[in-house]
Amino acid sequence: MSKTYTISYNEKNALFKIRDALSQSIKKCSLSNKQIVLICIGTDRSTGDSLGPLVGEKLKFLKRQGFALFGTLENPVHAKNLRQTLDNINILYQNPFVIAVDASLGTADEVGNIVIKNTPLFPGSALDKNLPPVGDISIKGIVNVSGTLDFMVLQNTRLYIVMLLSDIISGGVYHAIIQTLGSKRFVSNDNNSQIDSLLGN
């Protein structure tokens, strides 16, 4: 994958371009027996920041050997529990390959773009939050225009654009996982119990 891959939400076959951008890296890691971990960052308490949990919610049914998901509408990963979630992942999995999804702000021309990089993302940077970098690969959906009051911008972002981006990102990730890890559903009760225990469920 190139260092930066930008896809517009209204681009033809955007979903499959995301699949292709991710598949090579996922396939390489799966052949090395690395656990693929998707972390969907954000909160449902802010429209613009709900992109991550919405992606996670759409993918929570996707259970495959070698794939794990953190961050849904029910159990979001956000500023208050991000560090603990990363610690839990490192307890559960040895040297995982992490794909991080988060909302982002940009210029007017960038709104609606999905940016995929083979570098970490920095959650909360628009709000000056001191959080650790996340991901071997990052997927950012640009939901609105950056301004002087980014907190208010996120609060007043249209749900329509967030839903469009979440549909395309989740679809692209889904097809990348199916293409690389296979279509056979896998449920590990032991691992699910470990995750639930760490999350306090």
Task: Please tell me about this protein's structure.
39% of the residues lie in helices and 19% in strands. The protein has helices at residues 14-31, 51-59, 82-92, 150-155, 159-181, 189-199; strands spanning 4-8, 36-40, 67-70, 97-106, 113-117, 137-145. The model is unreliable at 189-197 (pLDDT under 50).
What's the shape?
globular
Helical content stands at 25-40%
Number of helices: 6
How would you spell out the order of helices and strands? EHEHEHEEEHHH
The first-level CATH class is given as: Alpha Beta
CATH homologous superfamily label: HybD-like
Secondary-structure blueprint:
Layout: E1 4-8, H1 14-31, E2 36-40, H2 51-59, E3 67-70, H3 82-92, E4 97-106, E5 113-117, E6 137-145, H4 150-155, H5 159-181, H6 189-199
Parallel strand pairs: 2-3, 2-4, 4-6
Antiparallel strand pairs: 1-5, 5-6
Helix pairs in contact: 1-5, 2-5
Concise synopsis of the structure shown:
The chain is of the alpha/beta class and 201 residues long.
Give the key terms.
201 residues; alpha/beta; Rossmann fold; 6 helices; Pept_HybD-like_dom_sf
